[in-house]
User: What shape does this take?
Amino acid sequence: MQDFDEEVKYNFIFNQIVENEDDFVGCMAYVLYKRNKIEYIESYKKEHGGKEPELKELREWQKSECTERKLKNYRKLAEDLVNNFVNILQGKKERELKELKTTLDEKDRNLKKYEW
Assistant: This one.
């Protein structure tokens, strides 16, 4: 894990969550991380009269979010989301195929009525 240097202005957490350019689950995990970061900032602003958190406070939040356990949790949540999405798509395709089969069976029955 990379050190949290106060001088570092870029977000290195992406590289800790996403394993490679084909890591779709990792990208989804990063989106979940970013959503939590936005929620943290919004909550901070509410608690501090609209004041944005300073870099030091953001780094402290990042430290708490970048433990091995939390990074694994982000990945697990992302895997669950991706699996649910795939299952929904698969169910939709199965329903479409069933409807298509019903339609084709009906057309086949109608064609058989006109066989010579």
In short: Residues 13-113 form one domain. Helices lie at 13-17, 24-47, 55-65, 68-113.
